Structure formats: structure tokens, C-alpha cells
Amino acid sequence: MSQMRLSRRDLLERCAVFGALVTLPMCDIESVSAFWSQAEVRKPTPPNDLGPFYKKRAPDTRMLRTKGDPGMPLAVSGRIIDTRGEAVPDATVEIWHTDHGGHYDLAGYRFRAKVPLDAKGGYQFDTIMPGHYPDRVCQHVHYLVTAPGHKPLITQLYFATDPVFEGDPDKNFSKDPLVESRELVRPVTIAGDPKTMFAAVSFELCLERR
Amino acid sequence: MMSRVLFVFVALAASMPAWAQTPVVTLKAADQIGAAVLSPRGDRIAAAVGKDRVAVWSLPDGKLLRELTFPERPIAALFAPSDQIIIALAGGVIEFRSIATGEAVRRIEAGVRQSVLAVSADGRLLATSQMAEIRLWDASGKLLRTVSHELGATATLAFSPDGTLLASAGYDANVHFWDVSTGQRKASVRDQVLASFAISFTADGRNLIIGGASGAIEIADVQTGAIARRLRTEKHAVSSLSLSADGRSIGATYFDVDGMARPAPLVVWELASGRVVNRVTPPGAPPMTAGFAADGRLLYATAKGQEMTVWVLGTGAPSAGRN
Predict the structure, then answer these.
(1) Chain A within 8 Å of B260 (Cβ-Cβ)?
(2) pTM summary value
(3) How far apart are CA B148 and CA B291, in angstroms?
(4) Residues B245-290: pLDDT tens digits?
(5) How large a percentage of chain B has pLDDT more than 70?
(6) Interface test mutation site (partner B, options A48, A54, A133, max chain B beta carbons within 10 A)
(7) Which positions in chain B touch A51 (Cβ < 8 Å)?
(8) Which residue in A31, A117, A186, B170 is a FRET match for B281, CA 20 to 30 A apart?
């Protein structure tokens, strides 16, 4: 049996025009309840500070490291989704972090990028593990994600292997007062062979709709 | 490369006259000294001390005038235009504290997590910010309006000399000009790629002097937001800007982005020509605040632990004495 499925926008528009009591009889209760149970299935990614060293006009690239860069190679991948679990392939993902020595490139664009997305909202970039620096406790990668129809997301990615967490990020994540959510501390997998060893991290980002 | 840098530094130091860097007074506090601010006339200095205090000293004698204790950590503090009041933002409350008595003469509930504070030249308007949102208040505590940056937090705020415009610099690398009476955004500076940490209107209110992570001093047209001029770029980031009373000179303090406690310079520029009038790197610690005294000399402060030193930087002009 075919079933009329309303998008959230359809539902909201009908409610706005006719009022909720008029709208409900126009579709069966099951589809409405199914809709709402699917509507907000994901929690938005917790925000975190933008920090003082964001730089506009970063280059479009997914390869941030160059041969000879000191530091553990790092591959970060994930998807941009919304709170309904739907991909947001038209998002713009900007990332930036320090070099291995904990230095932000302010003069140029080392370790700064606008990362391209695939049709399913997937992204990946290759870089090096950021360094520590004196005025900040944890290694981190900054994210600024914007997308039409969604609230901008400013957040940071942290690493469970960061020595600051002493092997127990559940207990120690707040050693850096700027890490406001344990959720932002992601597991790190060591991959590759001994000659091409790299750290791999998965970080899915969930945007709120406007 | 390093030897060349050292040579240039030594050459600059050797060319400096003796008055270029003279300690006025060294002040000792009971606890760690944090941020500091000089009074508009340069005859007082206030500094955050420990977690919950603001201490005020007179200059040049270094007499402790008052230690003000707050229920929560003061996030920002500045002198009211009269020099007799400290306006501090602590625990979401703007407190006006009399330096003479230590009493709170006024309190404004600004809202939790407000973190940036500015006051107009006539003391009638205040602005605070929590993340991207900026709140504009009159001095009685009435919330006049709320405006907002697009992204991130507000780094700093400044009123135009006549109090008709509020400039806001955000960590999103944008600077906006807001009409105080309507809350409308009049213009924006969008040509910058890095965030600005310090802003100051020129004396005539037509331009905004901007400094930040790029190390450049830029002068933007208030009407259009276009960058009209760029002064020489330093390799450090700008932490504060101070305009002289006659509006002809600007003093800029800098910090090292790779370590805020590392030495960094202070540079005085002649605005009309863009010429560097003076440049020093204080020994041991970066300049944390600077301000022109009534006689035209630039005062600045450095701090380490519980000790703060106030220095005077000559400009070559004869001293007219203090007011």
C-alpha cells in the first residue's frame, strides 16, 4: 500500500496554514509518529571555541602535510550530517591547527584548509598530529562548518591519545578547561605498516537546522 | 639568518636614546598579577590580582589606592572617564566601584558569561559581549539594544569619540560598525583574513585603527569599511592600541602568539606619516598595557608573577609635567 510521506517542511507548512488540528486528519497517525521518531535522531555536535587564529580564505585541499613535515601523519575522516541523520553535502568545512611544534601559521596557510566533501557529505584530510603549545593544554584541530539552512558549527577535535589525558580521557578530559565535552575527544587508531604508520581518527559532525 | 636578526636588534638598541625605556615604579601585589589598564590621564593603573581582586595604584609614586574584591573573577575592568571609578565585569554583573571608598556605586545585571566591556568617552554608554552577541547599555543599566556578529566570539569593542557608533571586532576576522541609536550595522571591514584584538577610533571618528593576529596596523574608513592604509607589519600580534590625546600618535603593544609570556615589542607610530617614532622590546616580559599620559609620554606596564613595572617611553618631545 502506498503511503503519503510528508517531509518535515511539508508538515510544518501545512500546520502553519491550517493549524495542527486540521492537518492531523490529512495523514495517518502512524506516518506522523514515524516522522517525528525519525525527525531528530542525532544530537548536534557540541560547539567549542573558535579561538583567536582562524584565517579566512584557506585553500581547497585534503592534503595538508608535505614530505618532511615533522610529526605523526594523521588521517581524519567523517561525515557532515544534520540532526535527522541526513547528509549535508553542500556544507563548507574549514579546518586549521598548529604544526608539530605548536605553531599556527599566520603568515601563510600551512595546516589550514577548506576540505572538499563527497556527495554523501563525507570528508577526509591528511595532515600531521598537531603539537602542544604553551598557552593551551591539548592538541586540537579547529573546525568551522557552515551550510545553507543550518546553524554554523564551530568546534574542535581532540585526541584520546593526547598525553594530557594520561590514557583516561573519560576522567581527564577537563584537564584542559576548554574541552567542555568528552564527546569531542575521539579515539585514535594507529594504521599502516611500520614504514608508513599513521594515526587515523573518525569525526562525524552533526549540524542543527535553522 | 639568526645572526642577522641579532645584529638588527643590537643596532636598534644601540640607536635608542637613554630615555627610550625608563622604569617609573615597580609595584608589588599580594598575588599573581593578570591584565592591567592605565587610566585615561595616565596617573593611575589598575590590575587584576589573584582570582577575585582589582588593585589600583597611583602613578608615579606607586601608592596602593584601593584593592577591590569581587564575588567572582573580574573578566574585564577599566577606568570610567573620571578616573575615580573602576567599572568591572564580574560574574555577569557590571559593577561601578569608587576607588576612594571601594563601595559599589552602581550595579548592572548584564547576564551570564558576558566577557568584553567597553565604555563611551562620556561614560553614558556601555557595551558588553557574550560570544557573538553584543549588548548595548546606558549608564543607568537599561539595555538599549542587542546586535550580533555572524560567527564566534567578540574580541573587542570600542565606541566612537562622539558615542554614535560602536565598533566590534570578532574572532571571525570581521569588524563591524553599529549605529548606537538604531542598532543597524552601518558598515563592515571584511578585507582582513585574521582576527583583530585591538581597535581604536581616530580622534575625528572618521577612521578605525585596527590591530590583531596579522601584526599589521590597519586604518579603516568608518563609512565604507574599506582599509584606507596599512602601517608596517610586525612579526608579533597586536594586543592593545592607545591613541595620544592630540590624536597624532598611536602606541601598539604586541605579543608572541607562540608564548604570551615571551618578550614582545611596543611601537609608537605617527599616524599621519606612518613613521615609527619609537620601538622598544621590554626586558623579560611583553608590554601588557600602554597609554599616553597628559604630557604626551607613553606609559606602559610589564608584569611577572606578583610584580608589575610601569615604564615611560619618551617621544623626544619635552616633558610638560603631569596633570
Answers:
(1) yes
(2) 0.85
(3) 29
(4) 999 999 999 999 888 889 999 999 999 999 999 999 988 899 999 9
(5) 90
(6) A54
(7) 171
(8) B170
